Amino acid sequence: MSLQLYPLVFEPILKERIWGGTKLKTVFNKPIQSDSTGESWELSTVAGDISRIAEGEYQGKLLSDLISQFPEEILGEAVHKKFGTEFPLLFKFIDAKEDLSIQVHPNDELAKKRHNSFGKTEMWYVMQADENARIVVGFKEKSSREEYLKNLEDKTLLSILQEVPVKKGDVFFLETGTIHAIGAGIVIAEIQQTSDITYRVYDWDRVDAEGKSRELHIDLALDAINYNTTDTERTYTQEKNKSNPVVTCPYFITNYFPLDGEVEIKKQQESFTVYMCMEGNFTIKYNGMEWNYKKGNTVLLPAAMREYRLEGEAVLLEIYI
After folding, report:
1. Of these residues, 114, 134, 200, 309, which one is catalytic?
2. Which residues make Cβ contacts (< 8 Å) with residue 1, sequence separation at least 6?
3. Domain 244-320 in CATH 3.10.20.310
4. Which segments are annotated as binding site for Zn(2+)?
5. Catalytic annotation on 200?
6. pTM of this prediction?
């Protein structure tokens, strides 16, 4: 039995968050049910949150089951060799109506030891930002465990952290250990390792409807934080109908692909490819068939789909390993 090759899209896994809003519905038409939906997990194999295929031959099937059945055809030979049948990346849209907590993610070594998980290297593409929106990312100057703890205790942590104003199209690459928070009024596309390990260190003293504050992970975070300054912002070219490099790291490669017309793609890499549509509409043509997508769609092309055409007017993020 061989894999039926076509682009895979998934039912969104929607997450209620104390800081979430309604933009996932108003901007992307996601089927949210509340006024505080913070995340749409577009493509995930995190335990308990495994993506289900939304249409086509494999509609209703879990991605992890399909990978187990056809690992090389979906992941690619090189990715399968490295990760077995694990899908190594997680893709999300995030709507921050309010500030997210100040937090940090552990590296592979620490995450493996403590949680039997990958670490969480991630990147953000800003899809929409309200006026005066900003993110918190890294320390203003080289810090230390002692200085950090004193400011945390005195509720002056923000005074030693870097706040960066953001606008649509900005990209930030966050290596593990980078202390950070997405600020209010921002919608981002997030690409990260398959991990749901977050150490929350400060949550703005907020409480939920029942008066409860969220759990903090201050002790766990101490060994995870990089107290040096970090350079997180990435600039990139925007040449039409080309893969413009944005982030290249050991975990993923992300390109900015402004589509205008029709482009033939012949893949070289031994990897799956994911397209996240930031703007516009586009069509994938393969083997005499075509599929249409729009802003807010995330599409997984199995590695075995080596030659296909992209058509339309759209801004795409192109991701592979």
Report:
1. 200
2. none
3. no
4. 105, 122, 180
5. yes
6. 0.96
